[in-house]
Amino acid sequence: MRSRFWRNWDFPIRIYYDRQKDKNETTMSEDDSSHRKQGLVQRWLQQLGNWLQGEMQTREQLQEVLREAQKKNLIDADGLAMIEGVMQVSEMPVREVMVPRSQMKVIERDADARELLETVIDSAHSRFPVVGESKDEVIGILLAKDLLPQLAQCNDELHFNIRDLLRPAVIIPESKRLNVLLKEFRASRNHMAIVVDEYGGVAGLVTIEDVLEQIVGEIEDEHDVEEDSYIYEHPNMITVKAITPIETFNEYFHTNYSDEEFDTIGGLVTRTLGHLPKRGEQLQMDGIHFRVLGASSRRVHLLEVIKTDEKKTAEAPAEAQA
């Protein structure tokens, strides 16, 4: 009897197997070395197919076989990363990939039409949670495309009722697994969900793009990363994308971190900690306090940064009052 592990996860491997088999059957080379390589690929794929029938019992065994195949150039690095990404989403909870509450771009229920449009244009997003008194009160989701018919009907004045444009918000717990969420996204044709913690408060949001990036890697569009958007100042904190070049970080914070070994601040933080950090981990390094706001099983996404002297200044009044 096949294990539950294979019932859940042999699908992506079989897709790869079938494609390679069809490719090898229809593409013949006259070069002897090509024939030998083709035979090696076929033997490896046949062996993998046999293992899928029950001989392999653990995820680690499968990963070892796949990595060995990559070393022998039977699959490329991108293919290996995608297969491993498919396997990882079955274990990864939403909290590891969601956009944190502090980073959510929201529209207030009572915002007038001009304020609403400014938010949509400045953020360049396509979907927005609409909130009431606070971010914990999500009353619906606004799609930017739903605004277009309203704008076409406006003459000199912008006026419409935002409640008429809202779609229901999908609410999910932060413990939901990504593979389950992806199935729900596909079935419901929703592309965004609001993530809540164990107390019912809004912890963040997640999109179908966030899930797919765990499989295929970073998905960027023309709005994603401008050089001046690596570092963002909030009213009570500064957040830094992990992909921020160390040179850019040094210029902004007047630090002197070396970029000889790593190009990004996320790589430097990971190296200093000695392991891939999880959300919430903190690090003090040369006068800068780092806290991980967003991370997945493969990389850091977002950091909160505080200069140590600024942190002490902020804590001083509280200590004086005590």
Descriptive account of the structure:
- The protein is an alpha+beta fold and 322 residues long.
- The chain folds into three domains: 4-88, no CATH class; 94-216, CBS-domain, CATH 3.10.580; 227-312, Uridine Diphospho-n-acetylenolpyruvylglucosamine Reductase, domain 3 (2-Layer Sandwich).
- Helix content is 44%, strand content 17%.
- The chain contains eleven helices and twelve strands.
- It has helices spanning 4-26, 32-55, 59-71, 77-88, 113-123, 147-153, 178-188, 208-216, 246-253, 265-273, 308-321, and strands at 99-100, 107-108, 127-131, 138-143, 171-173, 192-196, 202-207, 231-233, 238-241, 282-285, 288-295, 300-307.
- The strands form three sheets. A five-stranded antiparallel β-sheet has the order 8-9-12-11-10. The chain has a four-stranded mixed β-sheet with strand order 1-7-6-5. A three-stranded mixed β-sheet has the order 2-3-4.
- Helix 1 (4-26) runs antiparallel to helix 2 (32-55) and helix 3 (59-71) packs antiparallel against helix 4.
- Residues 1-11, 25-31, 222-227 and 311-322 have low confidence and may be disordered.
